[in-house]
Amino acid sequence: MLRIEEKLKILADAAKYDVSCSSSGSTRKNKGGVGDASASGICHTYTEDGRCVSLLKILLTNHCIYDCAFCVSRKSNDVKRAAFTVEEVVDLTMNFYRRNYIEGLFLSSGIFKDADFTMERMLRIVKKLRQEERYNGYIHLKTIPGASEELIKEAGLYVDRMSINLELPTEAGLKLVAPEKDHESVKKPLAFVKDQIASFKEEKKLIKHTPIFVPAGQSTQMVIGATPENDFEIMQVAHDFYKNYKLKRVYYSGYIPINNSNSLLPQIGSAPPLVRENRLYQTDWLLRFYGFQLDEILNPQHIHLDLDIDPKLSWALRNPHFFPVDVNTADFNAIIRIPGIGRQSALKIVQARKFGRLHIYQLQKMGIAYNRAKYFLQCVDTPFILGSPSMEHVRHAILSAGTRHNQRKVVAGQLTLF
Amino acid sequence: MYYLFDGTYLGFLCCVFESFERKEFPITPLVHTDYQIALFAETRTIVTDNRKALRVQKGLQKRVGNVEAMDFYRAFLSEDRKAWLASFFILHQIFNGRADIRQHYGNDQVLYFSQILKKVSRERHRMKAFIRFSKSSDGLYFALVEPDFNVLPLISDFFRKRYADMPWLIYDMKRKYGLLSDMRQVGEVHLSLKEVQGAAAPSIAIALDERDELFQHLWKHYYTSTNIEARKNMKLHLQHVPRRYWKYLVEKK
After folding, report:
1. Do residue A194 and residue A327 come from a single domain?
2. pLDDT, tens digit (0-9, with 9 covering 90-100), for A52-74
3. Which helix (H) or strand (E) holds A237?
4. Which of A163, A190, A224 delimits the end of a domain?
5. Which residues of chain A make contact with B242, given a CB cutoff of 8 A?
6. Is the ipTM of this complex over 0.90?
């Protein structure tokens, strides 16, 4: 038998490409045992890649009957295989949790034998934690596509969040690298869990002591940059999934090359598309929290997000007629559309202006990114400029005044003499 | 004018009471042990009187509600004199009928108050995240911390609810006191110097649970394994886990 240490190494390494690490949104209370959920979630540490570590994220096993080209655990990949026993996962989770290392467990798995067999084994871990260890901390469980609805429903009674990964944004992309899989097998269980959550909520209205069912909702993940989908296609898919399955989150994961055996995928050594990934998340936020419609940011005319500037600024530059916004009179929804002003600052502005009209120095102190925002807003002492500056000029001014990272990009576009 | 008080929140509230009673404003609240700062200035020593403090607290709750009233306690725990001054200014405004003064972000004092609140709240959140318990052979889970602000009172409830079935101790090395839970209630404890030194080097002085080192070891392994080398971003890493916290983090030690 492998030592627990080696198993942990193999099965944590294989699970790390799953991005989701959120531990928020659950309402589970400690009922005479150990652990509870923190509504806002807690990141207990961060790895050197800057990603949060909130949950003990492991695979039950990396044995898998599938052969998806983008996946490190695919059947044909020559990696060491391992599998935890139920007791080992429970022991690790409890001991890490009691030492306050983690906020809970994220359990995923390769598919061994078949979907139901795998799901059943995962369910055993979850039940043991809840029933025998009286553990009330967070549990994120992967739904195994193809598992029976009875198993999924039972699991939902014990876990806080469930998720299934779309893997590739489009069906066509998926067929290229994982011919055995399809989006339908993801959509079906997502829809099933969504309906269950809704019906448990209905029931709760009538009967107070209805058990909680997946209180932190569902999420999914797409790999970005492995297949040739453009940003418009990706965000359309995300948008549909938010709408149709009431997802809490869609995660975008920049593809990290893990093998050279499939010539369709980026090869080892090519950098993961980190900036693009960031822009997709920014777009996601604009859609969910800033009142933007998808077609304002991405549409058939603009199918790619600008990598040099964020999507809000990019939208603003394309829509000069919307600006300048007077922060002393405009409503909240207009103020959050100003590049460089977030929701928190906008709220401060709206509250503070009741005490008198705001000046530049006050805005600066409140913590807005004034150097970016100044081209798009107006306050008491905004200098009067005849005519409006061209947006091309604004873009250049912002980029060259920005961080060194941006400056390099601007300079790179110019000629070098020597 | 400096008001010298005993350094407790009740004492602080008494300063507010006295300043209204005597119609003295502005005043600067100061802990009497910091007296040398005010050596040549006019001072008044404020005696803590729980009834007076309670009257201020009740009046405050009536005007701004319990949640906002609590903010002044949080800001007090920052131990930052500028924040105390800002609190004083805001409290005066509130008791003079401007209950909505907290929204006046264009005002320096109000803005500073909201910023310090944010800092305290961030530190409180960090302590919930960064505290690492070790298990001793007699079953006590203990942790040492050095928070930037005096946030132990703000995390007591959180740990009491979460770890209700195990005894635990969280000790603030900077402020020399800790919280001890015996599974029934949480109390404040002060350790002797020898005990503190023992806790700082537990492998020598405190007998650890036989499996504690195993789990520390496994946690470090997990931490390394879950990192994606191709995405390395030390700037972001340091932003999230500033170096001053590394000392007590198992995975960064």
Report:
1. no
2. 999 999 999 999 999 988 889 99
3. helix A231-245
4. A224
5. none
6. yes
